[in-house]
Amino acid sequence: MQRRYITVDVFTDRAFGGNPLAVVLDAGGLSTAQMQAIASEFNYAETTFVLPPRDGAHDAQVRIFTVNKELPFAGHPNVGTAFVLATQVARPPARFLFEEGAGLVPVEILTDEGRTVGAELTAPQPLKKLTSFSAERAAACISLSAADIRTDRHAPLIASVGLPFLMVELTSRDALRRAKPDASAFAGTFPCDGSDAVYLYTRDVPGAEGCDLQARMFFPGLSGPTEDPATGSATVAAAALLADLASERDGELKLRVGQGFDLGRPSLLLTRVRKQNGAVASAHVGGRCVQMMEGTFRLAGEG
Questions:
Q1: Is 58 exposed, middle or buried, given 0-12, 13-18 or 19+ CB atoms closer than 10 A?
Q2: pLDDT band at 297 (very low <50, low <70, confident <90, very high)
Q3: Among residues 46, 108, 120, 227, which one is catalytic?
Q4: CB crowding 159-196: b at 16 or more within 10 Å, else e
Q5: Is 241 within 8 Å of 225 (Cβ atoms)?
């Protein structure tokens, strides 16, 4: 069977920025093992597979694979998949509703003068604050010292709105730039609470970089810890965590988050979190996308 795919750069408005994603549009009949093999062949941070929904009230079932495992939810795969699906029809809907392992994921389509330019997802789960770590333990994972870790707002901790990450605030942009994953410390820390990745960020951002926070994310690759240029699921969890800690009881808190700058793939992720009566009511992350490549491959299904 001939199967179509489209690749897209997510959380960017220009080619070769943001985070690449492969979207397999004709995934019917593929087995889990085949999907994993295809994702490994693309060798992107994630590949998505679009399937008919189990419930006709929804738009699609979307399965998300890294090079070595399936994920219940992820950020840039949802944004990129919604963007791709919207560009394939003459009159795209204002919103898609995707069935995923973590639950239903609503994704709004972003337009500019009637043209589809990106998407914004709503996190599928409420904020969960899980295991906390010492500054020393977190610093070891990213080859820094405890003095580089900022703990006045929160200790390093695992947080999730669908996919868990160890959240670490750093004291400076320089510390963020110097960080690199330490394989031994990673192995001694993860997995924990279902997490195997570190999201590090700083508020110390030069004005020229055009954002409120700068961030990086390290996760297990095929040959050890590696870096992701834009991580929507971690960014929206961080935004929810920071909103939860903020003094405002009601309203909408917005952040512009840069990522991938130190990789040469600059990304801009736009978050907004609604608070009601002192609690996080919903968390969202979105951004622009650029279609890159499209093609087909021939593979009979085994599912």
A1: middle
A2: very high
A3: 46
A4: bbbbbbbbbbbbbebebbeebebbeebbeebbeebebb
A5: no
Residue 40 three-state SS:
helix
262 CB-contact burial (10 Å; exposed 0-12 / middle 13-18 / buried 19+): middle
CA separation (Å) from 61 to 52, 96, 208?
6, 11, 40
Mean pLDDT of 31-49: 96
Residue 145 tokens, joined: 């010292």
Omega within 30 of 0 (cis) for the link into 92? no
Contact in structure between 147 and 178 (CB atoms under 8 Å)? no
Active site residue 46: yes
Give the pLDDT band (50/70/90) at residue 223: confident
Helix 75-87 with 232-245: angle, nearest 10 deg: 120
DSSP class of residue 192 equals B
Residue 302 has pLDDT above 90, yes or no: no
State the pLDDT confidence band at 47, using cuts at 50, 70 and 90.
Answer: very high
Q: Are 164 and 158 in contact (CB under 8 A)?
A: yes
